[in-house]
Design brief:
single chain, alpha/beta, six-stranded mixed beta sheet
Length: about 280
């Protein structure tokens, strides 16, 4: 089961719900096991909820892309090679190419959409490119730098929900990623803002708008190069070198407050250590 997969997240939350139900059911058992049952139930609920939230965050940001990375193994991130699009032999940097995917009929456009690829599209066959959708009636639309431009001519019957299939259709014909930005003329701003997923929307299709789209495109996710390992033991420091938790002269260590600043866990009536009992 993948560490970033949805089945593991669903299983964890299902166990958390089961732990809540079981704890409520056995909250008042007879005999001396009452305290043990309550403590075990509350601990199980807390651990499962924290694990569920952590799995969701890890799925979004890929802090630990695999069980091997979580266990302290080599931080290897598998990157799928770019799959060739069906129109790769036709697409080049010399102009727009008419695009007629099977899903276009449901888009109710005023004209066939056009594809414009950047200059490096043909020479970098192992690379995928983000998408810039231009909603306009104009025909003189330039190419976006470093992205595949899709010039779309909407009509009054075009719906944003129908256009939601455009990225998937484009993925069959060109080497694109799921990163997308929309440039729209004033009359099509409402259509752009209604696009499912709410990608960045920029008004107009002037060069400044393309530059803004390049800045607003969501950054690609990448796993950090050095992932902290839960299984990596702390190595003792060599003589003369600062060890973990021992600050160097003149510097403040984490958790050691300076004069005049309250310590962690101190109250307004006096300071107390973090582990002090009531």
């Amino acid at each position: 089961m993948s560490l970033t997969g949805l089945p593991l997240i669903l299983l964890t939350w299902a166990l958390a719900i089961a732990a809540v139900v079981a704890t409520v059911r056995w909250w008042r058992p007879a005999g001396r096991s009452r305290v043990l049952v309550r403590v075990a139930g509350l601990v199980a609920i807390e651990v499962l909820v924290v694990a569920g939230v952590g799995l969701i965050v890890n799925r979004e940001d890929s802090f630990y892309p695999s069980w091997q990375a979580l266990g302290g193994g080599p931080n290897v991130v598998e990157v799928a090679s770019a799959r060739a699009g069906r129109l790769d032999d036709t697409l080049d940097s010399h102009g727009a190419v008419a695009w007629s995917p099977p899903a276009a009929e449901a888009w109710h456009l005023a004209g066939a959409p056009r594809l414009i690829v950047p200059a490096e599209y043909a020479s970098q066959a192992d690379r995928t490119f983000p998408i810039v959708v231009v909603l306009t009636a104009a025909t003189d639309v330039p190419a976006a730098a470093g992205a595949v431009t899709v010039v779309v001519h909407p009509s009054v019957e075009t719906a944003a929900s129908a256009l939601s299939t455009l990225p998937e259709s484009l993925g069959e014909d060109a080497r694109v990623t799921g990163r997308m930005a929309i440039l729209a003329d004033p009359e099509w701003m409402g259509l752009a803002h209604g696009w499912p997923g709410h990608p960045p929307v920029i008004a107009g299709h002037a060069p400044a708008a393309f530059a803004q789209a390049d800045r607003d495109l969501p950054a690609p996710l990448a796993a950090p190069e050095n992932l902290p390992s839960l299984a990596a033991p702390l190595r003792p420091s060599s003589p003369g070198s600062p060890s973990l938790g021992s600050p160097s002269p003149g510097s403040r260590s984490l958790g050691s407050p300076s004069l005049g600043s309250p310590s962690l866990g101190s109250s307004a009536f006096g300071s107390s250590s973090l582990g002090s009992s009531w």
